[in-house]
Amino acid sequence: MELRVIENEPSELSIEIAGEDHTFMNVLKGALLETEGVTAATYDVNPEQSGGQTDPVLTIKTEEGRDALDALADAAGNVKAKSTSFRETFEAAL
Amino acid sequence: MSEFDVEFIDRSEDDRDARFVVRGVTPAFANGIRRAMIADVPTLSIDELRVIENSSVMFDEMIGLRLGLVPLTTPPGEFEEGETVTLALDVQGPATAYSGDLVSADGMVAPADENVPIIDLKESQRLELEAEAVLDHGKTHAKHQGGVAVGYRHLQTVEVVGDLGEFADDDPQILRGVIEEDGELVPTEEFGNDLRNRYPGKEVRVEDVPGAFVFDVETDGSMSAPELVLEAVDSLYARADELEEAVQL
Amino acid sequence: MSYKCSRCKRDVELDEYGGVRCPYCGHRVLLKERSRDVKEVQVE
Fold first, then answer.
1. Which chain C residues are closer than 8 Å to B65 by Cβ?
2. Which residue in A22, A83, A93 is closest to B6 by CB distance?
3. Which end of chain B is least crowded, N or C, by CB within 10 Å?
4. What three-state secondary structure class fits B123?
5. Residue limits of the DNA-directed RNA polymerase RBP11-like dimerisation domain (chain A) (predicted)?
6. pTM check: above 0.90
7. CA nearest neighbour of B95 among B122, B59, B64
8. B–C interface: beta-carbon pairs under 8 A
9. How many domains is chain B partitioned into structurally?
10. What whole-number distance in Å separates Cα of residue B133 and Cα of residue B67?
């Protein structure tokens, strides 16, 4: 997973995540919107006039005093926790 | 004390089919699992041939395409992406070459079905070859898809709101999937998918249960349906883990 | 180059002088045989 930061301000982050598609990006976006201090989160898999770019670009806006990168790390952690929890519940139901 | 709840409705004997309800899951996460099952869980598939003899009526490439589409058992976690397994096929006509004639060099890998016809060989025709199966994703080629019919629907509840008027239209009320009635899960096939059969003369209201999804999973036999689900969840975990690490640096 | 005569089914070797003709029966239709090499095929 290759990351390219496009814009990095205290409360706004634009980052390109190479090799991913809707499968992971939508899960991540969903987790970001549940994350504390995140005011907006979205992704675009084919930014306009990108010259054929198809790697998704994730954009996060956060409340003042909340670092967008930290929020992203928290959201990724949340996806991990959810996955683990789902795995355990699913295995228990087998 | 998990936020989720999983309940199985159906599981086929060979474990290739499963139907289960998941509660407490967001649509994004449910869709992530579904998409991962289809395109991201890798399976072994024949990708390269060494044709020693092919006196059949079809070109090597056509035989190759057919062999590629034969599902091979792929025990999860045993192979790395790009790893290969060698298989061999040697059939002398008159006979039909079947997927079951493929002999694998690895005891864990075998054709998931033994009765897939490859080609009919007439007298004096022969097909002899070696094949390399490679582990790859459904994203690369559909032959690597483990899940062949994977989807979900909202779990629905049915509420009786009153009686139908004497001259009300007798329209069908078709539902497909699973409905919940007082905590009981009822597959709609039980009443012919038509609510009129279950509530004759009643006016009913159908609503989605928030955060509850009925998953239908069918695999091609490369692994069991539960294994496919768990592999899909693990693939989401792996990507989240990679992202978390990359961001924390 | 090895060919097979389509009439008498015998193996035929062609050279640049004889022209396309079976030396055994004179038939002019020759079939090219598949090479005995192992052929590698990439499955698309």
1. 43-44
2. A93
3. N
4. coil
5. 13-88
6. no
7. B122
8. 34
9. 2
10. 10
